[in-house]
Amino acid sequence: MKPLTKNLWRNIRDSLGRFIAIVIIIMLGVLLFVGVKATGPALKDSLNTTVKADHLADSQLLATTGVSKAQVKAAESVSGVQAEAVKFKYVIGGRASDVVALYGYQKGTTINRLHLTSGQLPMQANQIVLDTAAKKSGYQLGQTYTFTGGSKLARRTFKISGFADSPAYIEDTSRGSANIGDGTVRYFAYIPASQMKMPVASQLNIRFPALQTRDTFSNRYKDAVATKMKLVKQRVKAQGEKDLRAAVYANIVKTATAKAQAQLAASGTPAAAAADQAIKPQLSTFQQQATVTARKQLSTSLTWQTREDLPGFGDYGGSADRIAAIANVFPVFFFLVAALITFTTVSRMVEEARAQIGTFKALGYGKWAIARNYLAYAALAGLLGGIIGVFAGNLSIPRIVLSLYKNYIPLQQVVSLQWPLIALSLLLALIATLGAAAIVVRNELTEKPAALMRPRAPKSAKRILLERITPLWSRLSFNQKVSYRNLFRYKSRLVMTILGIAGGTALILTGFGIKDSITATGVQQYGDVIHYQAIVRLADGKKPAAARDILAKSKAYRSAGTVSGAVAKLSAKGHSLSDVNLFAPANGNDLEPYVSLRSTASNRKLTLPRHGIVITSKLAKALNVTTGDTLKVATTNGQSKRFTIKGIAKNYVGHFGYLSNPAYQQLAGNSAKPNTLLVRLQPQSSKQNDRLAKQLLNHHAIVGISFTTTAKKTLSNMSGMLDPIVLIFILLSAVLSFVVLYNLNNINVSERIRELSTIKVLGFFDREVTMYISRESIVLTVIGIVFGYLLGNLLTAYILYQAETEAVVFPLTISIVGYLTATLLMLAFTGVVTWLTHRRLQRVDMVEALKSNE
Questions:
Q1: Most exposed residue of 100, 615, 750, 826, measured as fewest CB within 10 angstroms of its CB?
Q2: What is the mean pLDDT of residues 416-436?
Q3: CA–CA gap between residue 795 and residue 789 (Å, rounded)
Q4: Contact 187/135 with Cβ under 8 angstroms?
Q5: pTM for the whole thing?
């Protein structure tokens, strides 16, 4: 083995602690950088693989008028389309009178395949398969399951033959809503299609086999589906109109014929042939009537959905997008902190080897041969840490997160190696290690051997700012004065230590901040902005009094505000946004005490203008408008009007527009009546809410009710889905912070070992020697923590901005727990490092350290 190669391995052996520290720092930085950035794609790939295996429909049609066989053929007439009609309806069944999404099972169905978790499919007339989520309600195989009499089934009682998951219901906490029972669908069920008393199917599932290789969350996939669905919708609607028109026409002719027969019979004329002759002149009119009626019925009976409309599907994609957004910021910052500390460590390592470099140079070794020795050391540490980090991060963090997604159906875990990301991470790791070594070695090799073999002259002390404050300086002890002078004497170490501590504190604080801010979204939306607990929708033409009477029977009822509500599309400056909720008070121009409108600019209370509109902040941002701009409001009923924006209100969830009653009358017409109640309730359990909803929906005056607890639960789930990532952030940030502190402290001790040995020889006790150097670390730790607070808030704010969705704003919120945890961890790490330093200084060989290098 060549002498320089031996020297390389000897250097690694003699400075094993520093070598391992470099490897660990690089490993942590790369692990989090690659791991978190690979998690978003892994979440999407896993769901894509799962729904592809179970043939999830790309789109589906819900038709209250039914789906005919001709419509199925019309859909399949479009190239690349697979279509299947399914019997489906909402019914009430089970021990607790649950709302159930009931499907008719047909053998050979290929779209939305059931994935059995236990038991068998419903092959016999009396068998039923329940959603796996129904197990939470205590249902087991072999039990009897009964539907209510109003379910209109061939039989009411079934035997539970199995439990299954469906790709159409990927999340077990949400199954949608319905206008029966308590309004909340609890689970789905399948019985033989022959047991459902339905003349035709009510759902049409559409699938495009050629698009299944694409990411279901990508714009490329969505655009391709939209293009194909445009033609599918045209043909299915045209066929539906044709079928309905024929049925309506036949009914009109039948009614007219019967009427003519009755009239002719009364006059004594032979009925059959004469009746046919009497209605012939009206056939053209009948056809026109049938066409108008068919189009009107069809326009209100067809509801198209995509995968994004399925329960839980959009939330899953949003969660993956938020993790991807966080991965663009947090791991990058984490890696920068790690790289910065590594750069400093490697630089110090080469500078400490000045005498060795000078010796090699004096012995006649060339510059490249000498440089290669230290470049190999740095490259080996960088590659070792990088390789461990990329594979550990890429393969572990995504799997950990996927395994913790317990609210979703079992996913086929797909975690692929992100080769471009791996290559980038290794390149950055080498820049941090090899780059630092190359820069310092190059500088050292420019000096002559004699200069290199002498130690650098110690930096001279200078007066510091604190010395100029005489009353304070005079009260400090000798040791304290020395410590404060040394702080500013080694400015590079001061900066690096503060940056390291600030970075660690900021990272831990950001981990807590992400979770706290998402949680605060619901608290502020349903505490500061919205004060009602339920929205009750009235049937057309029904007065609010009937609904108030039912509400008044509930002990939880406090009050109800009557408003006019509508869903609208708002447009301005080439931008538009659909599904915006419009509210206008039935009287006056104030929504208090149900909604508090506060200006985003001044936090002042906003009063609804007589001729303008107040919109929420996220809506204003989406439309790129501000106060004074004009926008177009178009309701789903076809009314539209332009309004001037009179105010932009704080809001955190959803899109809302608020009008005064006169302004709403301008939009909807003077005959528009209030159709919604905003209800304030005392806190009550989910079961009590369900009971109240059931009472309301059983009344003919009410068509729907929704509770804010549902939205709160969604936000809670959103926060819960990020918990694994946040926990990983906090743990790895804490480990990085400790390693950084330990490493910087080791560098400090190594650089000043002669100084420390000198004061030890002068009679300082071990504890005093330790405090001589640790006092500096404590001061820098405190300063770093304070800077970390500021940096943590800035980093959290930026991540939240990146993670915002189209309809949700995350207010910057970091709880006191976050600050305390970050602070206590940093102080604890400083304490541990101080203790380790004390142990090391106790074992220092003073004679060896004080030997002259000359």
A1: 750
A2: 85
A3: 10
A4: no
A5: 0.73
